[in-house]
Structures are given as structure tokens and as C-alpha cells.
Write a structure and sequence with these properties.
This protein is mostly helical. It has one domain. Helices cover about 70% and strands about 0% of the residues. The protein is built from four helices and no strands. Helix 1 packs antiparallel against helix 4 and helix 2 runs antiparallel to helix 3. The radius of gyration is 20 Å and the shape is elongated.
Length: about 110
């Protein structure tokens, strides 16, 4: 990775707000798209300790017509995990850079109503 020369508080805060908004939109989109399924259904499948339990859950989904949505939900979970890993990677990169140098003195974002 290219070494970071300066990190402004304005730029770091702007990226934080953009990524926070993207995360909120992703959660809303996933909730609306996967509407008939609940997070409990997916977690119950992901934490099934025996193959027979997982197979019975899949059969329930198939009989209710939710199997395709459940598969999409699991793919969205992996996308979210990738997003979280990349966000942590970016956070650690900026944190390491901030240990070595001070933030530049650009004005912080101010919200006025």
C-alpha cells in the first residue's frame, strides 16, 4: 500500500459518513429484499450443529417457497463480512498513519440547521 502522507480530519470524517450511510442503506435494502425471512431463520441455519437439522431447515424453506431468498441472504452475509473486513483494514491503515503524524488542520464538518 502507498504510504499515507497526511490525513485530514475532514477527509477521514467524510469517508466515515459515506461508509456509515452505505452500511445503513445496505441493511435497509437487505431487510426489504429478504422480507419473508427473519434473521433468526438464517442464524438458526448457520448455527445448526448437525447436517440433519440444516437439511430440515432447508426443507422448511423449500416448502414455504423461501429457499431462493435464504440463499441470497447467505450471499449477502458474505458480502457484508467482506465489507466489514475492508472497513477495518481502512480503519487500521488510518490509525497507523495517525500514530506517525498529526492530522492536518482543515476545518471539521459542521452541521447547521
Amino acid at each position: 500500500m502507498k504510504r499515507l502522507q497526511t490525513v485530514s480530519q475532514y477527509r477521514a470524517r467524510r469517508w466515515f459518513l459515506v461508509l456509515l450511510l452505505a452500511n445503513a442503506l445496505f441493511i435497509i435494502f437487505a431487510g426489504l429484499y429478504l422480507r419473508p425471512l427473519t434473521s433468526n431463520d438464517i442464524v438458526r441455519f448457520e448455527l445448526a450443529k448437525e447436517a440433519s437439522v440444516a437439511e430440515s431447515i432447508v426443507q422448511e424453506w423449500k416448502s414455504a417457497g423461501l429457499h431462493e431468498k435464504a440463499v441470497h441472504s447467505i450471499y449477502l452475509d458474505f458480502c457484508l463480512l467482506y465489507y466489514i473486513v475492508q472497513a477495518l483494514r481502512w480503519h487500521l491503515y488510518i490509525f497507523r498513519a495517525s500514530l506517525n503524524m498529526k492530522f492536518s488542520s482543515k476545518p471539521a464538518i459542521s452541521f447547521r440547521m
